[in-house]
């Protein structure tokens, strides 16, 4: 009888925990939605977004790679800045896959590139769509009611797929650059390795995007557009691309002049990405970042920028699910190092991770609605990854802890309140906000997540 009673109690306890968890998620969602609606968009603001565009081809990584056929005596996790052989491709993929870390790499070997694109054509689940940081961010802004000027090089086929609120200010090409998006879910297996979270590995062999071919027509259109917000993105296409350093530097200088030509009423945001070329990242810090008011990045890109600013070297791989305190300490240090710029001192920093969103703004700056923006970024993360405008709590979970330290040094703790899920506080001349993400458990896509999340956060702050 005691054994039966114990089993019944155990089942009841599990049921009560399940109900309790569901109620908690409902409270969090309702509170986030209420905060998101607190400051609706006013008027029809204008954003100008560059540079580049492509055709995204999405496939399931394990379907196309067939890891069980690999020679695992020779394939070992290893990082390569540029992929020159199929073995280097395998090693680089596994290197990031085992950590569930997003990465993007240029394939210099046309033989490897053609073999992968040919294999992708045989995958039944293959999907195609508009790709590239600038087009994806443009689509998010347009869907939210903004008017957008897009600077990209795209085929007429892709231009036709753009939202009616988007004005195309680029050059036409008969054939788009193609990006192969190798998506994988939590728990996916490749040989002896298992993915600790859903993510993607992106490969490309671009011809147009690394040369920022849309720079001139976009600049001409900018002269009369007078945007409220200028976004610079897609510069990772130049990373490890076979251009001379001086040629890359010349392109960055032209973009820098474009940024500096904006009046004080135009806010400027730079969207970070996966950079591994030390000299190129140094040039970004010299020519681009000093002229941006705002930076957006993920949990891999923040430590990389910090490492370059502090030690002068590149950080290839970091935790795919960092503690809040770790992220906040990085953000403080980066903010401090960039706030004394002679161009546009940094006044906003947005870091998006799987578990939470973090936005820091400087008091007295023109950025507004930080709490609603953080809530919107959180909701956008679920909506995009699940592929639905509505958040389905049956396909969501919370992985953020019940409390977090604001720093690894001071150890001040903030306890999570599901009725007030966005935690905001002041530190000197900075305002901080943290929001939990209702993590999507049935992933539709991870690619474009950062672009949509960053755009979601910016939409309410300008």
TrEMBL record:
GO cellular component term, pick one: endoplasmic reticulum
Coiled-coil annotated spans: none
Biological process according to GO: glucose metabolic process; glycolytic process
Keyword set includes DNA repair: no
Keyword Chaperone (UniProt): no
PROSITE patterns the UniProt entry points to: ADPK
Pfam families: ADP_PFK_GK
GO molecular function, one term: ADP-specific glucokinase activity
Superkingdom per UniProt: Eukaryota
Keywords: Cytoplasm, Glycolysis, Kinase, Magnesium, Metal-binding, Transferase
UniProt-listed SUPFAM superfamilies: Ribokinase-like (SSF53613)
The name this protein goes by in its record: ADP-dependent glucokinase
Organism from which the protein derives: Darwinula stevensoni
Source organism phylogeny: Eukaryota, Metazoa, Ecdysozoa, Arthropoda, Crustacea
